[in-house]
From TrEMBL, chain A:
Keywords: 2Fe-2S, Electron transport, FAD, Flavoprotein, Iron, Iron-sulfur, Metal-binding, Oxidoreductase, Pyrimidine biosynthesis, Transport. It holds the Pfam family NAD_binding_1. The keyword Mitochondrion does not apply. Its cofactor is [2Fe-2S] cluster; FAD. Pathway: Pyrimidine metabolism; UMP biosynthesis via de novo pathway; orotate from (S)-dihydroorotate (NAD(+) route): step 1/1. SUPFAM superfamilies: Ferredoxin reductase-like, C-terminal NADP-linked domain, Riboflavin synthase domain-like. Residues 2-102 form the FAD-binding FR-type domain. It comes from the Bacteria. The keyword Iron applies. This is Dihydroorotate dehydrogenase B (NAD(+)), electron transfer subunit. Responsible for channeling the electrons from the oxidation of dihydroorotate from the FMN redox center in the PyrD type B subunit to the ultimate electron acceptor NAD(+). Binds 1 [2Fe-2S] cluster per subunit.
TrEMBL record, chain B:
It is an enzyme of class 1 (oxidoreductase). Catalyzes the conversion of dihydroorotate to orotate with NAD(+) as electron acceptor. Heterotetramer of 2 PyrK and 2 PyrD type B subunits. This is Dihydroorotate dehydrogenase. It comes from Planococcus donghaensis MPA1U2. Residues 4-286 form the Dihydroorotate dehydrogenase catalytic domain. InterPro entries: Aldolase_TIM (IPR013785), DHO_dehydrogenase (IPR050074), DHOD_1B (IPR033888), Dihydroorotate_DH_1 (IPR024920), Dihydroorotate_DH_1_2 (IPR012135), Dihydroorotate_DH_cat (IPR005720), Dihydroorotate_DH_CS (IPR001295), Dihydroorotate_DH_I (IPR049622). The gene is pyrD.
Length: 255, 304
């Protein structure tokens, strides 16, 4: 169920260039059902900036009523969010949207992420592993300074890193790694920039896949029709990334 | 206990607060969060004869204390709205104000005729002020003669009272208000969004795919208040005021300026519970200000 709550900041730290990890506590955390859902955060109590910021959830701790977000502080809103300290409270709306269907994976899954699309794959990897699914992680970043959670992913399974400038791991994009890997998996899950999602879909047309999309949002709950995408399912309708997604089966979204 | 009720043509409101059209869809999303029967009314998303896909994305851009949108009247079309969306809303004890849009007079007439016969639609809001469509919309709302004739045409077919939604993107809003009054309007809703732009500073390109969008949010409240103040003194029509309302004091201000009820738009995106919160706070705020009823506040600024 969607809740709005002033949640307590438990921990905030910078974990890579412009990348922050923020843990909050409150009853809302216990509503988190699926990896890949997101929360909508009001970063200031004033109306400047006005709109909430959609932030993805990197891990959920139901017992402690906490969850951890990872975001890139690059604009006004996320810059203000990065200033929050333990003891501060933040206005959180969530959990929102539909996440990754973990029950679709059978034995082995590829988790393919790019940049700030990597965080939701971490909770996904944890949940898949706890169901006995083998996960292989293929993660792309701009450069070595932007890499985060490499060790945490390694603890859960085979992990490959690509950086655009080649300063860490394979030089290039995740697709360069995918070309070298076997195709002995049954399901893939991916989150990242739209061109990356497109490339991943092209790489595995025969496989079952689930992709998490990004779009500029207004309300975050499906009422304002800002974050729409065309769909292959209907010529007369859009899908809304915030409430129908952000995760869709491969082949549904026309980007 | 303060009296929150408001009587307007076609509308017996239990309180003066309603979500504005385009900011609340057809209610389903917010119904997950609270009981819609708490609301004074609901202004549903603009409905056109045919399904409309709307504009390409990006459709929204944040601005200083506001936002631009150019959704482009995306809606499922008259048939689906009357057969699915409106019947679904019947489970709630709340009057519906149906927002009617189109590209030709015939479109408006067709939608108004059919949608006004839905049992829970108790008033129409004629959208002659959408700034984000290439044809129709705002072109009906910027010329007094065109606005008057459209009002007449819609009034002839509507089974319920007709409110005209005015655009602020005009030189003289009073002349448009008077024209729709002459055309037989039962009320006015105002204001729609102000035309605006935002640039991507790096590339120099407009951020909104439609190039321009409608500005809403707290940034436009002073403009809206001024226009409600002016129009309310020059027509006898009741006004449902809107534009940048985010809290109970904004509501008081609009009532003081001359509005009889108040719609909340963009603030729903910031705080999805804003409407029930304002409704909850209104009795105490009225009491603090020394009033027993909402109606006592209406147009108070004119009498000072």
């Amino acid at each position: 169920m969607i809740k709005q709550e002033r949640m307590q900041v438990v921990k905030q730290q910078q974990i890579a260039h412009q990348i922050f990890e923020l843990t909050v506590q409150g009853a809302l955390a216990t509503e988190m059902a699926e990896p890949g859902q997101f929360v909508h955060i009001r970063v200031a109590d004033s109306f400047e900036p006005l709109l909430r910021r959609p932030i993805s959830v990197a891990s959920i701790d139901l017992e402690a009523s906490q969850f951890t977000m990872i975001y890139r502080a690059e604009g006004r809103g996320t810059g203000l969010l990065a200033e929050k300290k333990p003891g501060d409270t933040i206005d959180v709306l969530g959990p929102l949207g539909h996440g990754f269907p973990i029950e679709e994976a059978e034995k082995k899954a590829y988790l393919i992420g790019g940049g700030i699309g990597v965080p939701p794959l971490y909770e996904l990897a944890k949940q898949l592993n706890s169901r006995g699914i083998q996960t292989v992680h293929i993660l792309g970043f701009e450069s070595k300074q932007a890499v985060f959670y490499e060790e945490k992913f390694r603890e859960l399974g085979e992990t490959h890193i690509a950086t655009v400038d080649g300063s860490h791991g394979t030089q290039g994009f995740v697709t360069h790694i995918l070309n070298e890997l076997p195709t002995d998996f049954d399901t893939y899950y991916s989150c990242g920039p739209t061109p990356m999602l497109e490339a991943v879909q092209w790489a595995y047309p025969q496989k079952k896949g689930f992709l998490s999309y990004e779009q500029r949002m207004g309300c975050g709950i499906g009422a304002c029709f800002a974050c729409v995408c065309r769909t292959t399912k209907s010529e007369t309708d859009y899908i809304k990334v915030c409430s129908d997604g952000p995760v869709f089966p491969a082949g549904v979204v026309i980007s | 206990m303060s009296d929150l009720t408001v009587k307007l043509p076609g509308l017996n409101l239990k309180n003066p607060i309603m979500p504005a059209s385009g900011c609340f869809g057809f209610g389903k999303e917010y119904a997950q969060l609270y009981d819609l029967s708490q609301l004074g009314a609901i202004m549903i998303k603009a409905t056109t004869v045919e399904t409309r896909l709307g504009n390409p994305t990006p459709r929204v851009a944040e601005t200083a204390s506001g936002m631009l949108n150019a959704i482009g009247l995306q809606n499922p079309g008259l048939e689906k709205v009357t057969e699915q969306e409106l019947p679904w809303l019947e489970q709630y004890d709340v009057p519906i104000i149906a927002n009617v849009a189109g590209t030709t007079t015939e479109d408006y007439v067709e939608v108004a005729k059919k949608i006004s016969q839905s049992p829970n639609v108790q008033a129409l809001e004629i959208n002659i002020s959408c700034p984000n469509v290439k044809q129709g919309g705002i072109t009906f709302g910027t010329d007094p003669n065109v606005a008057r004739e459209l009002t007449r045409a819609v009034k002839e077919v509507s089974a319920v009272p007709v409110y005209i939604k005015l655009s602020p993107n005009v030189t003289n809003i009073v002349s448009i208000a008077k024209a729709v009054e002459e055309g037989g309007a039962d009320g006015i809703t105002m204001i729609n969004t102000l035309l605006g732009m935002r640039m991507d500073t790096k590339t120099g390109r407009p951020i909104i795919a439609n190039i321009t969008g409608g500005l809403s949010g707290p940034a436009i409240k002073p403009v809206a208040l001024r226009m409600v103040y002016e129009v309310s003194q020059h027509t006898k029509l009741p006004i449902i005021g809107m534009g940048g309302v985010t809290n109970v004091d904004d509501v008081i201000d609009f009532l003081s300026a001359g509005a009889s009820a108040v719609a909340v738009g963009t603030a729903n995106f910031v705080n999805p519970f804003v409407c029930p919160e304002i409704i909850g706070q209104l009795p105490e705020r009225l009491h603090e200000l020394g009033f027993d009823s909402v109606e006592q506040l209406v147009g108070r600024s004119h009498r000072l």
